[in-house]
Amino acid sequence: MLARCTCVPSQLALARPLVPLASSSPRTSSLASRRTHSTSSRPVPRQEDLPTTPDSLYPGHVPINAFQRTLLTLGSAVMGIVDTHRHDMIATLSETSSPLASLRRLQAHLRSTPSGRALLRTRPRLSSSTVSLPSLAALPKGTLGHSYAAWLARNKVSPDTRDPVRYVPDDELAYVMQRYRESHDLYHVLLGFGVSLPAELVVKWFEASNFGLPVAVLSGVVGPLRMEASERKRLWRTYGPWALRAGARAQCLIGVPWEQEWETPIDELRARWGVERPPVGFKAWRDEGRRLEALRREADGV
């Protein structure tokens, strides 16, 4: 049985995130359809295939000191904002910005449940080499497996594009970070959101409240700056309070044994884990945005 993450302060769910609403950027076309997803654009090396050094704690581990960690955090944050396609920078930021205490609290949560202890013991991976996507696609509609395979195909996303962990100075904590990273697409599936910028932001708000990792908080704060002010306000009003509340109320998803639930109806899993459905389907929100944009253009005589 899962439990709520003890790592997330309860007041996070009640606090208004630092999403700037008043400032505006030069008007461009709507960003609702722009794709932005925290994966590489091509398959990346498997963790176990990465080189090691005498100082490495696991394959691919790069030992760094506090000064190097600070430089990497600042540099990856800047590069991630300047070039949103540098998903390696987002991956680096997620590792260097996460205090070990945050990862240890997630680790403690995993150790507190039988399914979590099994995950830490067996360390399953989510990739095309460990999960048969054609088999999942053949499962009945409405199951987690079918929904996941359909989401990957619809959004042209591969499970093989999650960057390996390099800078977490502990073997088991590195797996905790990798599990969080590889499960990210399943959070999209569970919540019902695609990979556009607004959809990604809503999932990040949920993750910030459910896991409390700094990278999710930072993404949820900085990401909206790339949107027009009106769209940013509309996204927050529709989904912001719900995402924070839903993330705080849901059971901690870091310990979900996805591999054992492929044949389970996704609605049953939402009910079991306490995941609230969004107040408005994302397609309806996007269509309303297009309608408002058309009205604006008509009023402007465009």
Automatic annotation (TrEMBL):
It is found in: Mitochondrion inner membrane. Residues 22-33 have a biased composition (Low complexity). Its main location: mitochondrion. Its cofactor is Zn(2+). It is a peripheral membrane protein. InterPro entries: Coq4, Coq4_euk. Residues 22-58 are annotated as: Disordered. It catalyses: a 4-hydroxy-3-methoxy-5-(all-trans-polyprenyl)benzoate + H(+) = a 2-methoxy-6-(all-trans-polyprenyl)phenol + CO2. Pathway: Cofactor biosynthesis; ubiquinone biosynthesis. Pfam families: Coq4. It comes from the Eukaryota. Zn(2+) binds at H184, D185, H188, E200. Keywords: Lyase, Membrane, Metal-binding, Mitochondrion, Mitochondrion inner membrane, Ubiquinone biosynthesis, Zinc. Transmembrane segments: none annotated. One of its GO terms (molecular function) is 4-hydroxy-3-methoxy-5-polyprenylbenzoate decarboxylase activity. GO terms for cellular component: extrinsic component of mitochondrial inner membrane. Lyase that catalyzes the C1-decarboxylation of 4-hydroxy-3-methoxy-5-(all-trans-polyprenyl)benzoic acid into 2-methoxy-6-(all-trans-polyprenyl)phenol during ubiquinone biosynthesis. Belongs to the COQ4 family. Component of a multi-subunit COQ enzyme complex, composed of at least COQ3, COQ4, COQ5, COQ6, COQ7 and COQ9. This is 4-hydroxy-3-methoxy-5-polyprenylbenzoate decarboxylase. The lineage of its organism: Eukaryota, Fungi, Dikarya, Basidiomycota, Pucciniomycotina.
